[in-house]
Amino acid sequence: MKIVVLGASGQLGSCLKRVAAERSINDISFPSEQEGNILDEALLDKLFNAEKPSFVINCAAYTAVDKAEDEQDICRKVNRDGAAYIAKACAAHGTTLIHISTDFVFKGDVTGLLMETDPAEPENIYGLTKLEGEAAIAEILAQHFTLRTSWLYSEYGNNFVKTMLRLGGERDQLGVIVDQVGSPTYAIDLAGAILDIIASDSKEYGIYHYSNEGVTSWYDFAKAVFDISETEIKLNPVKTSEYVTKAVRPAYSVMDKTKIKTAFGIQIPYWRDSLALCLERLAAEKV
Ligand SMILES: NC(=O)c1ccc[n+]([C@@H]2O[C@H](COP(=O)([O-])OP(=O)(O)OC[C@H]3O[C@@H](n4cnc5c(N)ncnc54)[C@H](OP(=O)(O)O)[C@@H]3O)[C@@H](O)[C@H]2O)c1
Question: Would you tell me which CATH number, out of the four given (3.90.180.10, 3.40.50.720, 3.40.50.1380, 3.40.50.10580), belongs to the domain 3-158+184-213+254-269?
Fold first, then answer.
């Protein structure tokens, strides 16, 4: 049962590489962007013919949320058209697709748990193009698991946790947004959940929500990073209205994960426990 990971050099792709190795999963390949550019249909066809994958995991995306407001065309190309090209290749080769989407498909004005069936109403270009990608896949391919996730971080790539650790070493005080609430996701946990879905051999295709358990603000997330890593810094709560960004972000987006837990028997760690593990690994890797 062959698995191919697209967008393999990004954060989630790197986590998949690590978790697959930890689980001794060998029939998995991680083509480079040159070998698996999702905007090149001929290249994808060649890759599918060579690898004959049972599963493709698409981690490739345009993820620069603020820059996307100025680069709508390329963002849409990657997040919508790229997703559609992969879905077409999967349909032609009888491959199951695991695709990653985002909580940014939601407006973020509901202070309850967001279900997979709740109306999506993105507030920014990145969220809109990710929603268009979801729709394109659903139109082309029945055999897909689309996982919406939020606030991804890990030892790999650029992310909030690594930025906080860097700033904690450079500054004695820092302002962090206090009125945006959501759920962090350790990308290593998400990678494990993806491989669990593949191992389950389930045919319950469709959209699923996945983040770590629990709810926090960016301010409290930063506070946890500094507390656990024993970094001395004065944290100042900042309101969204005081910190203007190009892209509008959801004020409150907490997703209900009952569906993924029930369908695949997945156990999801609490966000602070996963954060502690990630920080421990980051500290150990630095030594
Ligand atoms: N990061 C988050 O907080 C977050 C939150 C919710 C959902 N997500 C979703 O989770 C998934 C994984 O995110 P991530 O954090 O791992 O993102 P990432 O680190 O930015 O990785 C995305 C990868 O896709 C590659 N890529 C871009 N265009 C490509 C193309 N045409 N062909 C092949 N590869 C291409 C990128 O390469 P370059 O670096 O060379 O462009 C990068 O290596 C994405 O679908 C993202 O939308 C992320």
Answer: 3.40.50.720
